[in-house]
Design goal:
The structure holds 3 protein chains of 3 kinds. By secondary structure, chain A is of the alpha/beta class. Chain A has 9 helices and 10 strands. Chain A is 36% helix and 19% strand. In chain A, helix 1 packs across helix 7. In chain A, 58% of the residues are buried. Classes of the chains: A alpha/beta, B alpha/beta, C alpha+beta. Strand 3 of chain A pairs parallel with strand 9 (207-208) of chain B, so a sheet runs across the interface. The complex binds thiamine diphosphate and iron/sulfur cluster (SF4) (3 copies). The site of thiamine diphosphate (TPP) has 17 residues of chain A, from helix 3 and strand 6.
Chain lengths: 253, 355, 75
């Protein structure tokens, strides 16, 4: 460090030094980083247990220095339910892609939300199946081309992209729902605050907390990371607006 | 102090789970098994186990994965179609080495089938059931008492070997009422340093996974599992013999039908036939050596496997007997329980055919 | 102008996604297009040191947590 300077940001302690396998510019990486910043800032590493899905983030446990379980494809919400029910004082999160959370695992997602399971969903909505090579997801936009919708998603055939934040906000026992993104530093800061809020609400046992990351997938979108930000702004946000969908009623402190 | 009661098999199983220190139960209703979750729901206020009716068997098995992985003593019960739905999860649990207890109160299939008792899930239970090379410990109760005894044993074996263990029961044993001795409740103190309970500074993080992307590490993991299975085979085989010492004809039978077979042995002996019964209590690991030894006895003429299916355990019997003697089969399907008389008739036919 | 801050970027940790370069308000970062790290990726570096204002935009946006930020202490 140069003399006369102070350190104001470094890689969070709980993000292991292992190089993440994610493609350059992928928000999976950003989410991992921010998640571990929150864990460190709240000082909850010793009581955090994560569940990672099947999808690009299947190796999340290689990077996060917390106890973790690897769930079967789509079942992270059930696994997180199992953990949280037996260890109610731990901070539990499930980390899931859109195929995982909103296609194969929709039943587990909705029922966990309906029960108000007291854990935090970190939902990475990149509109595509990253891991398996760019197939259509339940969140692929209308007209968007993927390897299984080569002429663009046709709602006549496969319906419209699912809006999970909007859906889960309907459940009474869901306490906090926010859609965030990492396309700008300002949004990234909001995203961090959202995850922190979610964990705090979880620790107060107020119900399910649900963070959707309007994410990118430069590799399967077949664009540069920079272009992926433009796609987010021009196509994703108009359909998937960022913001808070639900929060607990403000209590006087 | 042992308590004696008249109880239904499914309820006895639930009570045994409570007395074995059950910490979490996840399940989904299905006949003829629902009394287990109903009983646990009724008793819940008296204890502090977690009880949750899941949205499906798929969810239930994955809740089991989570809570077992977090160190709990956990169980689910179901019947055939539900157990099929659980297979993916059991494969993950076997590979991640999470102790969990299952009970399949079998009904007749395939498909939606019948709610009548059956033994047609033997292959599914004993040959892995899901994808990949794995086995789970399979105990077969043939009475309400054994529902209780095997429940405790299944929990102990699951913990000891970090593996799923199951009771392969059936709709008749689940539904029938018998006198049962209930054991003293235990206070369960888990010792599971591998569990995901939160990383404390004194240890590395705990990870429960079944993902080994490199072929070499996947093979290594498989070798570890296979080594464990060898240990289980070496230590945990259980079986029962009835009048086999001088027997010339050996009936092999498991679970419910073993009781009918026992009756058959008695009736046959009254008629002067030297019948004996060999009953596997663990069907995985299968008592191969013990059967092979019996097959080698000069007076033994042949075997007949009596089952409520189209012929499933008989394959394991044949492998054990290994050509030393002939092995016949008699089975009923669709939930029909064979009678001693019809079994005896078949044995007489086989004997006549042999001479 | 006196330098307000500076950043250190891990050459091996950087994946060359260019997002930090894009979001630096003072344009003091650049991608080294002449050199690569051991993964064969161009990496970002602090090209114009004295322009850094220690705003942390780059470290916030960097997916791979490759950036460390230092700020000049108040005298
Ligand atoms: C039962 C089952 N079906 C299918 C697969 C194959 N598979 C793995 S990941 C995946 C989709 C991943 O997409 P998503 O959840 O959106 O995550 P991403 O990779 O985009 O982060 C699929 C279909 C599987 N592993 N298991
Ligand atoms: S394939 Fe897509 S989602 Fe997966 S790591 Fe690469 S950019 Fe990220
Ligand atoms: S701290 Fe701000 S000014 Fe300095 S390099 Fe990073 S983005 Fe640029
Ligand atoms: S944002 Fe990070 S990974 Fe991307 S170019 Fe900058 S330093 Fe490298």
């Amino acid at each position: 460090m140069k003399e006369g300077y102070e350190l104001i940001y470094k890689r969070p302690e709980s993000l292991l030094q292992t190089r993440m396998h994610y493609c350059p510019g992928c928000f999976h990486s950003t989410t991992h980083k921010i998640l571990m910043e929150v864990v460190d800032e709240l000082g909850i590493k010793e009581k955090t247990v994560g569940v990672c899905p099947v999808g690009c983030s299947v190796f999340a446990y290689d990077y996060l220095d917390v106890d973790m379980q690897e769930a079967a494809h789509g079942r992270a919400a059930a696994v997180a339910t199992g953990i949280k029910r037996i260890l109610p004082d731990r901070v539990v999160f499930s980390y899931q892609g859109d195929g995982d959370l909103a296609a194969i695992g929709t039943a587990e997602t909705l029922h966990a939300c309906n029960r108000g399971e007291n854990f935090t969903f970190i939902f990475i909505n990149n509109g595509i199946y990253g891991m398996t090579g760019g197939q259509m997801a339940p969140t692929t936009l209308e007209g968007q081309k993927t390897s299984t919708s080569p002429y663009g998603r046709d709602p006549e055939k496969v319906g419209l992209p699912l809006k999970m934040c909007e859906i889960v906000s309907q459940f009474k026992r869901v306490a906090f729902v926010q859609r965030v993104s990492f396309n700008t530093p300002a949004n990234a800061r909001k995203a961090k605050k959202a995850i922190k809020t979610a964990f705090e609400i979880q620790m107060k046992k107020l119900g399910t907390t649900f963070i959707e990351v309007a994410s990118n997938c430069p590799s399967q979108w077949k664009c540069t990371p920079e272009e992926s930000l433009d796609w987010l702004t021009n196509h994703v946000f108009p359909y998937y607006p960022l913001g808070v969908f639900k929060e607990p009623p403000k209590t006087k402190e | 102090m042992v308590e004696t009661k008249l109880m239904k098999g499914n309820e006895a199983l639930a009570e045994a789970a409570i007395r074995s220190g059950l910490q979490a139960y996840f399940g989904y209703p299905i006949t003829p098994q629902s009394e287990v979750i109903e009983y646990l729901a009724r008793e819940e206020p008296k204890y502090n186990y977690v009880l949750l009716q899941a949205e499906s068997e798929v969810a239930a098995v994955n809740m089991l994965y989570g809570s077992g992985g977090a160190g709990g003593r956990v169980m689910t019960t179901t019947s055939s179609p539900g157990f099929s739905l659980m297979q993916e999860g059991i494969s993950y649990i076997a590979c991640a080495e999470i102790p969990c207890v299952f009970a399949n109160i079998v009904r007749g299939g395939p498909g939606l089938g019948t709610i009548q008792p059956s033994q047609s899930d033997y292959n599914q239970a004993t040959k892995g059931g899901g994808h990949g090379d794995y086995n789970i410990i399979v105990l077969v109760p043939n009475s309400v008492q054994e529902m209780v005894d095997h429940c405790r044993l299944a929990f102990e074996l699951a913990d000891k070997y970090r593996t799923p263990a199951m009771l392969l029961s059936d709709g008749a044993i689940g539904q029938m009422m018998e006198k049962v001795n209930l054991p003293e409740p235990i206070e369960y103190k888990p010792n599971k340093p591998w569990a995901t309970t939160g990383k404390t500074p004194d240890r590395e993080r705990n990870i429960l996974t079944s993902l080994y992307i490199k072929s070499e590490t996947m093979e290594e993991k498989n070798k570890i599992l296979q080594e464990k299975y060898k240990q289980i085979i070496a230590n945990e085989i259980r079986f029962d013999e009835y009048k086999t010492d001088d027997a010339e004809i050996i009936i092999t039978s498991f679970g419910l039908t073993s009781r009918i077979a026992k009756k058959t042995v008695d009736i046959g002996r009254e008629e002067g036939m030297k019948l004996g019964l060999f009953r596997p209590i663990t069907v995985w690991p299968f008592p191969t050596k013990a059967l092979a030894e019996i097959a080698s006895r000069p007076q033994v003429k042949f075997f007949i496997s009596v089952e409520m299916n189209a012929g499933q355990m008989v394959e394991d019997v044949k492998l054990a007997v290994c050509g030393q003697k002939s092995v016949h089969f008699y089975g009923r399907m669709g939930g029909i329980v064979p009678t001693p008389d019809e079994i005896l008739d078949v044995i007489k036919e086989k004997e006549a055919g042999r001479d | 102008m006196p330098q307000k801050g500076y950043v250190e970027i891990s050459v091996e940790g950087c994946k060359g996604c260019n997002l930090c370069v894009l979001h630096c308000p003072t344009n003091c970062l650049a991608l080294n297009t002449k050199d690569t790290n051991s993964y064969g990726l161009h990496y970002a570096y602090l090209a114009e040191e004295d322009k850094c204002i220690a705003c942390m935009n780059c470290s916030v946006i960097c997916p791979d947590a490759a950036i460390t930020v230092y700020k000049k202490m108040a005298a």
